[in-house]
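Researcher: Following up on the earlier apo prediction. This time include the ligand. It's magnesium ion, with the SMILES given after the sequence.
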Amino acid sequence: MIWRNGQQSTAVEAGARGLATPVIALEHIHKVYATGSTPVHALRDVSLTVERGEFVAIMGASGSGKSTLMNILGCLDRPTRGRYLLDGIDASRLNRDERADIRNRKIGFVFQGFNLLPRTSALENVELPLLYTHLPARERELRSRRALALVGLAKRESSHPNQLSGGQQQRVAIARSLVNDPALLLADEPTGNLDTRTSIEIMSIFQSLNRERGITIVLVTHEADIANYAGRIIVVRDGRILRDYAVERRRDAAYELANLPPPDEEDAA
Ligand SMILES: Nc1ncnc2c1ncn2[C@@H]1O[C@H](COP(=O)(O)OP(=O)(O)OP(=O)(O)O)[C@@H](O)[C@H]1O
Ligand SMILES: [Mg+2]
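Model: Understood. Below is the ligand-bound prediction.
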């Protein structure tokens, strides 16, 4: 069975734009890790569709299979069984090099720990994914500048990660994830290391990328508070989808930020 209970409006919009191919279609995905003495069945018959322009949060207890699912969605790993269509391309059959190629072209990643290169400027960090392309240097720089501006860090291009706050570092990581113009943005616990206010700032960036630029986002979080910024929540338990539902009262991060007391000076970009 294919799950199709994402937000109806999003599917309608996607249809109106003639982009009916889902960004993600998982069909009966299984993942078995055979590394230890006893095999671990991390995903069991997961079927799931995500349409273009959706914002999905994946929740579940530790060990439930969230990262395993994200690794498959991100073409970092292959399912043991089942089929994965990414933007219409069968990613479950690709070899390592082909997966690397599809990752570079279609997917942006944001991680809990930011994963920035330390002795490298914000601009160079953002430019990294473009080094694998054949774009001329000037075009790479232009795109990287644009991506940094999009997350409100135009003035911090030459700052190194240790000169930036946690929230700013995560914004650099988001800019880096966007620079390839991906079809899909995957974020695994992107606010896990951040305080409440900074988490809302990061969620506000995700929401505006999703709403204004139509970027499809799949985000893993432990926190129900964070999941409620998404339009749809998928709950995973013991490697299966337990629930998949539209968020009724979706939080609006920009609105909440506007109603918080002003930030300390050092937090300002
Ligand atoms: N490389 C691996 N080799 C063997 N078993 C693994 C591997 N990666 C994950 N597992 C197992 O697969 C199951 C699902 O793990 P996964 O990392 O997907 O959980 P998770 O939901 O992301 O948990 P957390 O919230 O702690 O990050 C767990 O039982 C885990 O021990
Ligand atoms: Mg995990």
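Model: The chain is about 35% helix and 25% strand.
Researcher: Noted. I'll compare it with the apo version next.
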